[in-house]
Amino acid sequence: MKRVSLLISTVLVIAVITFFLFIPIFKVFSFTETRMHNPQLFYINVSKETSFQFRFTHSIHRTDVLENYEITNLNKLKLNSMEYEDVSIGMPAYAEEGQSLTYENGKYTLYFDDKIIDNFTLYVGDVDYDLYVHYDGNEYNLKQTLNRGSSYLFEVKSVSLYDKLKGVLLRDEK
């Protein structure tokens, strides 16, 4: 009888450990290399804060571009606005349907009415220009950790403790 009880206890402990190790319960900003057979997960832990920004230096204009996002209830990305200084190569000079464009204090701001996406591919160029994520009072320099010249699928998703342990946590610059 003691052996059966011990066996049942052991099976339950293994089941609980397996559950907590492999069930995706941690929400993260996920950066997954797109051109690898066994891509490594780079991530930023997501707290209750829902807004975040990408800031990068445009490689031609050499001015900052700020993209403002929100995380939706379904872990999708809502693009709220883009701020930039030049409208020539690669930057919109007019608003399309579902958008509005303003110009104040030398900056253009393109607002999006309801631009929701699942993910996007982020290319980390091999140039010495800024590429940062601002989130929850922290600033993450993506060029310090991500491989230059590589593409990453960026999304908000839930991962397991096992995924986090084998992945790379991006650290705040401070």
- Tell me what portion of residues adopts beta-strand conformation: over 45%
User: What structural category do the secondary elements indicate?
Assistant: alpha+beta
**How large, in whole angstroms, is the Cα Rg?**
21 Å
H-E order = HEEEEEEEEEEHEHE
Helical residue percent band: 10-25%
Keywords: Membrane, Transmembrane, Transmembrane helix
Pfam families: DUF1850
InterPro entries: DUF1850
Transmembrane segments: 6-26
Structure commentary:
With 174 residues, the protein is of the alpha+beta class. It has one domain (26-169). Helices cover 18% and strands 45% of the residues. The chain contains three helices and twelve strands; from the N terminus they run H-E-E-E-E-E-E-E-E-E-E-H-E-H-E. It has helices at 2-22, 142-145, 161-166, and strands at 26-33, 41-45, 51-57, 64-71, 77-84, 99-104, 107-117, 120-124, 131-135, 138-141, 150-159, 168-169. Strands 6-7-5-4-3-9-10 form a seven-stranded antiparallel β-sheet. It has a five-stranded mixed β-sheet with strand order 8-11-1-2-12. The chain is elongated, with a radius of gyration of 21 Å.
